[in-house]
Amino acid sequence: MNEQEYDRYTDALCKRILFFGERFCRCADTLYLGGGTPSLLGPQRLNKIINASKKAFSLDGAEITLEANPADDLFETLKEVKNAGVNRLSLGVQSAIEQELAILGRRHNNSDVIKTVKDARLAGIENISCDLMLGIPKQTQKSLDNSIDFLLSLDIPHISVYLLKIEEGTPFSKAKNLEFSDDDTASALYLQAAKRLQSAGFEHYEISNFAKKGYQSKHNLKYWKLEEYLGIGPAAHSYMNGERFYFDRNTEDFIQGNEPISDGKGGTKEEFIMLSLRLSNGLCEEKLESDFGIKITENYLTFKQKIISEGLATATEKGFRLTDSGFLMQNPIVIKILDALGI
Predict the structure, then answer these.
(1) pLDDT of res. 232
(2) CA distances to 6, 29, 109, 175, 234 from 9, in Å
(3) What pTM did the predictor assign?
(4) Helix (H, G, I), strand (E, B) or coil at 26
(5) Minimal CB count within 10 Å: which of 116, 177, 205, 280?
(6) Is residue 283 located within the same domain as residue 187?
C-alpha cells in the first residue's frame, strides 16, 4: 500500500469504528491494533484510529496493544502512540537464530529486537510481549534454548509460543528443500519451552501464552473466556450479542464499505468446553450445568480420571485442567469430553 491507500484505509476504518460505536453503545476496556503490521501506518494514522476508538467505546483505563515488527525503526512512533494511550507492545520475534529467521522470511535480527524493546521502554511502554515459534525447519533443542535465553535476557513480562502451522497454498507448503519437524519433535520442543519459561517465573496461563504476574493479555483472554469482542478490518472476526460475523479479507472491498458476513451463533457449549481447556483454570463443571444445563455423566467422570492418571490433566476444585502434556492433546481430549457428555 502507498501513502494515499494508507489514508483511505485509515479513514474507512475510523468510519466503521464510529458506526459500530453507535450501533452497540458499549464501553470497551481493551483495544488491539494487530493483524499484520499496523505500525506501518505511522503515528498520525494510528492516533486517529485510537481517538476514533475512544470516541466510540470510551476506552477509559484500557489495555491498548500495538503489534509491530522489530525490524522497523519505531522510537518516534512508539513515543507518539504512547501519548495517545498505547501501553502494550507485541513483537513478532519468532526466533533468535539467524538461520531460522531466514527460513521464516523475517528481516530483523537480534540487535533490532534489543533496540525496539529499549525504545519501547524509553517511550514509557513496559508491558511488552514477544512471539516465539516452534517447529521451524532446522530448529533444535539447543537452538530453542538459545532463543529462550535471548528472550529472557530482555526481561519482558509476556511470551507467546506457537507451533509452526503450514497453511495449504503458502510458499512454505510448496517448499521441497525444507524438512519440517514431526509431531514428536514439535511436542518435545513445546514441553521444553513450557518448562523453561515456568522455571523463569512465567505462568503458563493459556495453551500458547506465558506471563509474569499481572501481565496476562486482557484482550486475548476475552476470546478464551467467551466474552464479547468486535473486530473491524479485513479478515477481522467478531462475537457480539451471541452472533459471530467477520469481514472479507479484501482491503479495497472494506474501504468501499462491504458488509460483514454472518458466521452463525456463538457461545455454544462446545466452544465453552474447547476454550476453557485452553486455559490454566480449566473446565468448570458447575458452569457446564448452570449455564448450559449439561449433566455430568459417569462416562465423563471415567474419562476425566483416565486423563488425570495419565498425567494429561489435574483435578481442580470445580473440575479439571490440562497439564502441559495435556495441552498437546487438547483437540482429541475435547472430542472425547463432548462424546462422554453426550454432546
Answers:
(1) 97
(2) 5, 24, 30, 34, 10
(3) 0.94
(4) coil
(5) 177
(6) no
CB atoms within 10 A of CB 292: 15
CATH code where residue 296 lies: 1.10.10.920
The verdict on 203 and 286 lying in the same domain is no
Specify if 122 maps to a domain: yes
Give the domain-ending residue among 220, 242, 277: 220
Task: Please report whether residue 278 resides in a domain.
Answer: yes
User: What's the gap between Cα 4 and its chain centre?
Assistant: 30
Assign residue 197 the CATH number of its domain.
Answer: 3.20.20.70
Q: What are the strands, taking DSSP E only, across 44-167? A: 58-68, 88-94, 127-134, 158-163
CA geometry: angle 163, 168, 170, nearest 5 deg:
85
Asked if the structure places residue 262 within a domain, the reply is no
The answer on 171 and 66 residing in a single domain is yes
Higher pLDDT, 170 or 223: 223
Own/partner long-range contacts of 240-246 (Cβ < 8 Å, ≥24 apart): 240/24, 241/24, 242/266, 242/267
Q: Does residue 101 register a pLDDT over 90?
A: yes
Residue 93 domain boundaries: 3-16+24-220
Q: Residues 141, 188: contact at Cβ < 8 Å?
A: yes
pLDDT at 12: 97
Indicate if 213 and 315 belong to the same structural domain.
no
Q: Which are the contacts of 112, defined by CB distance < 8 A and separation ≥ 6? A: 70, 71
**What pLDDT is attached to residue 308?**
98
Classify each residue of 311-332 as buried b or exposed e, where b means 16 or more C-beta atoms within 10 Å of its C-beta: ebbeeeeebbbbbbbbbbbeee
Residue 336 confidence (pLDDT) above 50: yes
Task: Name the 3-class secondary structure at 109.
Answer: coil
User: DSSP per residue over 240-298, as a string?
Assistant: ETTEEEE--S-HHHHHTTPPPEEEEE---HHHHHHHHTTBTT-EEHHHHHHHH-PPPPH
| Overall average pLDDT of the 252-270 stretch | 96
| Nearest C-alpha neighbor of 219 from the set 89, 64, 83 | 64
